[in-house]
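User: Could you go from structure to sequence for me? I need the amino acid at each position, not a summary. Structure tokens:
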């Protein structure tokens, strides 16, 4: 039960308006982020299948099956020591054994330029383009949330002005009617 006390921190979201706007923007961006995740998943799948077909014999520790290939591609897209995986494919696992379950594959082969094209294109599209799509979706959602908030404030202030004007008109009408009654 004591662990649930940690959830008290979530009350800060309702107490701090700017944090509340940020959380609302994040929630509004979830559908668009779903499409970006779908696009990124298709990108990963295509490159994983290509990687397994090309590099399985050379580097079974990273491309032995589809699951390992997807995990290796996640490592590559986060730019976590991805050059080891690339150099193993470029030079062959007998020349440059990378860290993995089986450092030297049963069929070591140097792929040279094709490996460079494969890895650099994956990093360019996956790490640079797709991650920037996530950021773009968040910025757009934050801008929409801010615009909605500003329009609500403007509507609220225009309602208050119209309310004040109508109250003044009512008061003037009352004063006119009292003045007409006295004369």
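Assistant: Here is the amino acid at each position, in order:
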């Amino acid at each position: 039960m004591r662990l649930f006390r940690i959830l008290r921190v979530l009350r800060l979201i309702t107490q701090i308006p700017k944090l509340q706007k940020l959380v609302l923007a994040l929630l509004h961006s979830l559908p668009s982020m779903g499409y970006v995740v779908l696009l990124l998943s298709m990108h990963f799948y295509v490159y994983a299948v290509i990687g397994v077909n090309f590099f399985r014999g050379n580097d079974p520790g990273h491309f032995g099956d589809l699951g390992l290939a997807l995990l290796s591609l996640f490592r590559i897209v986060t730019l976590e020591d991805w050059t080891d995986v690339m150099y193993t494919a470029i030079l062959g696992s007998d020349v440059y054994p990378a860290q993995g379950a089986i450092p030297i594959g049963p069929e070591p082969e140097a792929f040279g330029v094709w490996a460079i094209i494969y890895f650099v294109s994956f990093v360019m599209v996956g790490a640079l383009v797709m991650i920037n799509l996530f950021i773009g979706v968040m910025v757009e959602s934050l801008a929409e949330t801010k615009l909605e908030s500003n329009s609500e404030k403007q509507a609220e202030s225009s309602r208050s002005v119209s309310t004040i004007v109508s109250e003044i008109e009512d008061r003037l009408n009352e004063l006119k009617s009292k003045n007409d009654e006295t004369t």
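One structural detail worth keeping in mind: The CA atoms of residues 86 and 120 lie 9 Å apart.
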